[in-house]
Amino acid sequence: MTCLGLLAATPAQAEWREARAKHFILYGNMSEEAIRAMATRLEQFDGSLRYLYGKPEIDGQESNPVTVYVLPTVSAVRRLYGKGGDHIAGFYQGRVSGSVAFTPMRSDEEGPNALQPQQVLFHEYAHHFLLGNSQVAYPAWYSEGAAEFVGTARFEREGIMLGVAAQHRAYGLLDAAKLPIETLFDSSRRKLSDMETEQVYGRGWLLTHYLMFDATRVANFNRYLSLLNQGKPSIDAGNEAFGSLKQLDRELGRYLGQSKIPGMLVRFERLPKTDVSVRVLSAGEQAMIPSRMQSDRGVNRNTAGEVYARASTVAAAFPQDAVAQGWFAEMAYDAGQDQAAEAAADRALAVKPDLQQALLYKGLLHLRRAASDKSKDPARWNEARSWIIRANRADPNAAEPLAVFYSSFRMAGERPRESAVNGLERAFELVPQDQGLRFMLASQQIAAGQIDQAKRTLRPLAYDPHARPDNPAATLLALLDSGNQDAVKAALAKASGEGGKE
Question: Which SUPFAM superfamilies does this chain map to (predicted)?
């Protein structure tokens, strides 16, 4: 039975369970069999990507897994997403506090060209994987094309087939007016229509597929990436590396016209052994999980208060549930209810003294108070940092305490210690998917005069296919090239002010 078949067979009143594996934590109202199968397949998918790209494990990645929330339907995912989510079938957010993905058990659509939830989840994890395992900036067409290439992965008896045809992109590839290859290569630098964006995905998939199975063109592509990451404009880099983009476009047309396309089977014996543990959530966690999902999805001033109000009753009913109290401490903190947040953290720590989330939020509360009071008392700041240090000791490879420790010096108006800078660099190594963390590191690198390093840090954001053409990273890169230090400082300040949990 397929993973999606197992999900569809899940009893309606099943208990919420948690499945833990090396790279993922899953939460779902599912049977043990279903959630274990899903976690296993996600781990196998991760293994297939490591095999495809030749990427080894990064020490400490297991402390920063992707949390996947499995909702019953696409409609439920869209409701959780909120405004702007009318057409999504799942979504992902890369964050130093913990990357999250939301996926439905089943699709609302049928037919051979329908987009399936597994494809969306695999597509989004591919973005997470590439950002986390490469220091190279990819153009929009390859970022989306590579995610589409592996997103259609099909599980077979012997292994995982990569490069399966992207049937859901058929209309954009076969029936719509073809996107000029110059537009495809320059798509990060201009505003595209909805149909042009659709073709960045479709023709990006086609070009990526072609490159994957042509040794000569792979070498051309590597040259193109090298030129692009040296700062050469994408179209110029493409013409230099590939010889002629128009000739490449003609080759793509012939490739698309083939009756069959190749695939790549990654056999299960080539993948690491998968270890998955499953448990039923405690009564407090079961009651709190709807609020936890909303909190983890991200809140603003309005929704933070709503989540806090709903969760308060649950928190009062389960004062001895350390995990539920830790979750509630975060919700109260986000809502600005500092007294309730600290009380919840204290309740959690009374039961589980090394609970990292509670230790972290104790520190965040003390830091916020010190910053609000504009304190200049070193002892007060050090006391606040002591909680962050304890959170770090609970799991030295967790990225968030490292990032918060560095931020504490900026909050205090102090020059960060060397240990704090080292911690920031380590946090970025562990979770480079977090955009705010990239800006924080780039700011530190600029302050230290490490301009070339700052450019490398920012370049993947400048080419982010989901960002606007004048996104802050692209703006900052241009300013760094211009040498206008005052404008650089202003751009950094503006970008930092646009951060937030939402």
Answer: TPR-like (SSF48452)
